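Troubleshooting: if your tokenizer reports a length mismatch, compare against these two reference records.
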Amino acid sequence: MIKLYAFIVNRFSGGGKASKILVHMENTLKEKDISYQVYVTNRQHHATDLARELSQKRETKAIIAVGGDGTVHEIINGMVGSDIPLGIIPAGSGNDFCRGMGIPLNYVHALERIFKDERKLIDVGSINNEFFATIVGIGFDGKVARETNQSQNKRILSLAGLGRISYIINVLKVLLYYQPTNVDLIMNQEQSNHQHVWLIAIANSPFYAGGMMICPGAKNNDQLFDICIVKGISRWQLLRIFPSVFKGKHIKHPSVTILKAKELEISSPTPMMAHGDGEFLGETPFKIMISPKTLCVL
């Protein structure tokens, strides 16, 4: 039986960058006489359905995501628990999963890495039974992600390689009107209440939003989340410490708390939005859990 690399392509990732990468990549695959098949998504959650189907086929050698973090998000929800490995060709605006895994952001080098067939088992998280690979952001963070995904400037900036700028623009926009709230948290079976909470980030990887190090110590193989809580801070103070997130220096601020846990429950009197891997995942309440060593990555 001939084993095939199954490429799942989101041609809209990175403002259309994925389509351009695919053309060049197919030339390389043909030159190297690599057996492969390309599947192009055409609707929301299509990548999940494709990954679920492909992970059950004996001829599938590996499933390769060609897209951004949203594409990876959909694909892992169709293949977590499978022994089929996942490869990634980064073609999104953020590519934070690749940053956390040390996968080259250049598609040529990323493809070379896949052909080495070096496998690594990693943890994934789940929020209300939906899997995520990198970070769940709740509150201010979730609202910014929602605005960014709906903004018209994201596609234009992504095409120019400036996807991070779209996120920063919407941070400033949401900061003008967002209202922090109180949060009830159950973590490691202990309950606590937190006042004036701006955001809670639950991290399986250090990076989100195009390289921001919200939880610089997070690892995807330690069976623990790193949790960042930002509370009791004014808008002006939040704006002042925001640039320090790019190097993970914000964790030194007294209004920032870093915790670790395997699972947690979050509720709030005022609904708080959440994103996972940059994708909108609903509003509080949430139950979030770690699933150790459930995804094989090339």
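Reference record two:
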Amino acid sequence: MILVAALLAGCTVLRPAETVRLRVLQLNLCNSGMALGCYTGRAVDQAAEVIRAERPEVVTLNEICSGDVDTLERAMRQVPDDVVVAAFQPARNGRTGEPYRCVDGQRYGIGVLVRLAAPDRGHAVHHGFYPAQDPADPEQRAWLCVEAGTDLLACTTHLAYTSATLALAQCTHLLGTAVPQLHADSGHRPTVVSGDLNLRQGGSPDVRSCVPAGYGHRHDGGVQQLMATAELKIDATRSVDMDRTTDHAAFLVTLTTVRQPPPAA
């Protein structure tokens, strides 16, 4: 009996797989101050309200200033033990090589927020600039991904608006080169790519031309798109009103995946 008890004490107990919900909120806040047709100065405060109300696990951010990430990270961390990773990537000024700037001098670009399951088992941030850029547009576009342990790779981008053909080339690079390279380097994991791609389903070219085989895809009826690897089942999508603080409604996508918890000792 003592031997049996000792053997059982040393056993590893496999826990049953669990279904995990993942809510991804895409926001284009038009907050640089340069685009006067959509800039209001109120979009970040409205975004914080939406984040607190919807409690997403992932937020992808386009057309933001660097300080906006801190504000929205605080909105996402609603209880003391919330673990939130915040990442920001500025666009590059093609004329100077320096970060592109908002009107107030802050760096301008894209961001990702990810709420991790506590404790944080490790994360990494990856980014890059597209090889194809519009030489007439000083804003050079970038991509940004947060790797949350083995559970998730969450990416965003804001593609070129001057040419749909160029935006498609950038999208193809992200989904066909950059993300597969991250999978090769760190191991495959469930992946979401969400952002303002300046491409439409049914457009010319069609955004579906850069969606890899096996990926799920949804859109907001316009240029905001979400793509996800096959492990993530897309359950629902809806637009969330931004109260005229920016020219894009928020785009909320709910996904589920089956995850095997770590074994119990």
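Descriptive notes for reference record two:
- DSSP finds four helices and 14 strands in the chain.
- The CA atoms of residues 158 and 196 lie 5 Å apart.
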